[in-house]
Amino acid sequence: MAELRLEELSASTIVAVNNMSLKPGQEEFLSPVSYGIAATVVNPQTSWQRVVLDGDEVVGFVSANFDPDFPQEYFRSVLWRINVDADDQGRGIGRFAVERLLDEARSRGMRSVNVIYEAGEGGPEAFFQRVGFSPVGETEYGEVIAEVAL
Ligand SMILES: CC(C)(COP(=O)(O)OP(=O)(O)OC[C@H]1O[C@@H](n2cnc3c(N)ncnc32)[C@H](O)[C@@H]1OP(=O)(O)O)[C@@H](O)C(=O)NCCC(=O)NCCS
């Protein structure tokens, strides 16, 4: 694996990000209901998005929202979306992206980062737990709220 690095989303990477593939069964975990609802009130200025590159190849995407004024506490410092191209999963790229996101949160003075996910076979729960998130609650839609303290 060449050196992994993060870049801002750009005209030259956005197509590759949109064309990243998932493994069968992963689609249903991509967007828990709570994110869909929160998205309607997210301020674009508080969102952080990065592409993960391995050499010149786009292998992943990670985004977050950092907004101390967001109505729900668990959306004030939150991993919004992460995905790694199907062929590149299991190589440490997801962990790399989460670690950089936690660095970004620290540099903004955040004291924790949350993620909301649906538990279930084929979903991201085991990944989030391996990279340091622990369950701290549940949304009104039954999704898990997990947190990393910084
Ligand atoms: C979840 C996802 C981002 C993980 O990325 P990845 O690059 O495959 O993960 P990594 O290789 O960095 O794995 C990090 C750790 O999590 C573990 N892990 C990852 N996926 C796992 C799984 N499905 N089951 C068990 N453990 C898993 C790895 O074994 C590794 O553990 P270790 O570092 O202690 O050895 C990737 O599977 C994905 O894109 N899924 C589809 C999209 C999705 O569901 N996103 C989350 C909701 S937005």
Task: Write a structural description.
The chain is α+β, with helices and mostly antiparallel strands and 150 residues long. It has a single domain (4-111), classed as Gcn5-related N-acetyltransferase (GNAT) (Aminopeptidase, 3-Layer(aba) Sandwich). The protein is built from four helices and seven strands; from the N terminus they run βααβββαβαββ. The chain has helices spanning 11-18, 33-39, 93-107, 125-130, and strands at 4-8, 47-54, 57-66, 77-84, 112-117, 134-138, 144-149. The strands form two sheets. A four-stranded antiparallel beta sheet has the order 1-2-3-4, sandwiched between helices. The mean pLDDT is 94. It binds coenzyme A (COA). Coenzyme A binds next to strand 4, helix 3 and helix 4. Residues 22, 26, 29-30, 81-84, 89-95, 117, 124, 126-127, 130-131 line the site of coenzyme A. Pfam families: Acetyltransf_1 (PF00583). Residues 4-150 form the N-acetyltransferase domain. It comes from Microbacterium invictum. This is GNAT family N-acetyltransferase.
